[in-house]
């Protein structure tokens, strides 16, 4: 491995840790600072932090890999996500920023729900916190799998230690760097590193497709189109083989946005409600550019692989393979850093949200209600370590698929929290009992759907992505149970 790659990666690691120490000095004196950055994020930081923590290694591995393997029809996932993110910024972001501060300055989603529905406060805090920690352990594991794949593919045989595989070393090295700046600097460190990482990711996703298409061996757009037509005449079709069920399963990924705690917590931290629209414009521009780049990478990467006789055993490693083949070692190191940025930005956000729930919704609820600010910050740091170790154990299987792990966790959060968050912010008639019902029904529906295999095959046809039945079932449960129950004091005015 060329020294230039190591230099680029070393500089990246040093920068991330330096940001962690800066945040430690700036914003870790209280729970609000450690867990929410003091609600003082500039729009640009909040926007790119939300985007970078959302996209993860899925953006550079999972999505390009799906397009590489199956063609342009897989792009509907990206389109669904883009629409879902836009609606999330419009409907959820301003309301959540205002209401979480109004309802007892809530620092976590479970805490907000408990304040919004006091009659079921205990049930909502405990059940939602359990769901957050369990699903985030799986979600974080998907990021560590991506990190393991990067190191096992790019550094094969170079970093194994004492019989431990490159994959395992990659997992623990990725986790170690993330834990360092997250434990030290808390939410501000995570948000600032997300901003830097988001910039790196976008540059990489613009640079690589251009070089793949027009560089040596690329052949240009017409040559790529011709090559792909010989591989599969329908490779560039948006609709070939796409059923109604398949289309819904793809675009309904966008429903997941409303219930992702690590994304919507950024809305709570924006400096003011008036700056949410600025953050939205920045965030959606970043997302559109990045998704287009990822789609182009998968499509043009397939054409390049065919034209140059590359044997790609794992489609999800196409970014890594092309980074190693086409660029100077210093640039290759930068591209590896972009992939690590995508991975680390999501892992750090998920670890911090899990830590916040363990601290605020378990420790301070059950063990020490009068914990000091310093004690709460310490417990938060310990919680980050524990969730990270649990995720690394789950990620131990090198055959795990990034997209598969992400899809399950995404669906779990989207179905459990999505309808709950939307209706709690917009429907004054919603009751605490309805909130609990929606939370439980959404999560259980997703788990049962996966266990029955209906996400792979449903009623003899193609599978239905579990977020769709989970989201619908949760919404209906909230609506019907709320109409059938009365919870005094919960039907409050909702700002629109």
UniProtKB/TrEMBL annotation:
The chain crosses the membrane at residues 6-24, 73-92, 122-147, 167-188, 195-215, 235-258, 286-305, 317-343, 378-396, 408-428, 435-452, 464-484. Keywords: Amino-acid transport, Cell inner membrane, Cell membrane, Ion transport, Membrane, Sodium, Sodium transport, Symport, Transmembrane, Transmembrane helix, Transport. It is found in: Cell inner membrane; Cell membrane. It catalyses: L-proline(in) + Na(+)(in) = L-proline(out) + Na(+)(out). It comes from the Bacteria. It is a multi-pass membrane protein. The keyword Heme does not apply. Its main location: membrane. Belongs to the sodium:solute symporter (SSF) (TC 2.A.21) family. NCBIfam families: Na_Pro_sym, sss. Catalyzes the sodium-dependent uptake of extracellular L-proline. This is Sodium/proline symporter. It comes from Amphritea pacifica.
């Amino acid at each position: 491995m060329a020294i230039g790659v190591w230099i680029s990666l070393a500089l990246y690691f040093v920068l991330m840790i330096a940001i962690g120490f800066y945040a430690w000095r700036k914003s870790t004196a209280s729970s609000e600072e450690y867990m929410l950055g003091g609600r003082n994020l500039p729009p640009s930081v909040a926007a790119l932090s939300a985007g970078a923590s959302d996209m993860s290694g899925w953006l550079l591995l999972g999505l390009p890999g799906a397009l590489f393997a199956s063609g342009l029809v897989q792009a509907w996932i990206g389109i669904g996500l883009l629409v879902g993110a836009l609606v999330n910024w419009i409907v959820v972001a301003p309301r959540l920023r205002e209401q979480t501060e109004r309802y007892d300055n809530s620092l976590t989603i479970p805490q907000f729900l408990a304040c919004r529905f006091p009659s079921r406060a205990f049930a909502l805090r405990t059940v939602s916190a359990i769901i957050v920690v369990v699903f985030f352990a799986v979600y974080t594991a998907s990021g560590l799998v991506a990190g393991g794949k990067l190191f096992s593919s790019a550094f094969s045989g170079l970093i194994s230690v004492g019989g431990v595989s490159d994959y395992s070393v990659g997992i623990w090295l990725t986790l170690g760097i993330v834990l360092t700046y997250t434990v030290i600097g808390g939410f501000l460190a995570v948000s600032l590193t997300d901003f830097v990482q988001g910039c790196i990711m976008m540059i990489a996703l613009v640079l690589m497709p251009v070089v793949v298409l027009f560089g040596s061996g690329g052949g240009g757009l017409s040559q790529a189109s011709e090559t792909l037509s010989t591989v599969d005449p329908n490779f560039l079709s948006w609709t070939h083989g796409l059923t109604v069920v398949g289309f819904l399963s793809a675009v309904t990924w966008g429903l997941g946005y409303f219930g992702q705690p690590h994304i919507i917590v950024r809305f709570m931290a924006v400096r003011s409600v008036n700056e949410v629209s600025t953050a939205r414009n920045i965030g959606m521009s970043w997302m559109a550019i990045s998704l287009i780049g990822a789609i182009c990478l998968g499509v043009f990467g397939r054409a390049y692989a065919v034209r140059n006789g590359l044997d790609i055993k794992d489609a999800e490693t196409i970014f890594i393979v092309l980074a190693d083949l086409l660029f100077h070692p210093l640039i290759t190191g930068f591209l590896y850093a972009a992939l690590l940025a995508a991975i680390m930005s999501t892992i750090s956000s998920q670890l911090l949200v899990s830590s916040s729930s363990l601290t605020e919704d378990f420790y301070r609820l059950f063990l020490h209600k009068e914990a000091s600010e310093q004690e709460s910050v310490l417990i938060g740091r310990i919680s980050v370590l524990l969730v990270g170790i649990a995720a690394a154990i789950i990620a131990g299987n090198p055959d795990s698929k990034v997209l598969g792990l992400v899809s399950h966790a995404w669906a779990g959060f989207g179905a459990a929290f999505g309808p709950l968050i939307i209706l709690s912010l917009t429907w004054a008639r919603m009751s605490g009992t309805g909130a609990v019902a929606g939370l439980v029904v959404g999560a259980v529906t997703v788990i049962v759907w996966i266990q029955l295999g209906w996400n792979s095959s449903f009623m003899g046809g193609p599978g239905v992505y579990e977020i769709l039945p989970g989201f619908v079932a949760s919404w209906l449960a909230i609506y019907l149970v709320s109409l059938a129950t009365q919870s005094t004091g919960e039907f409050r005015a909702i700002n629109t």
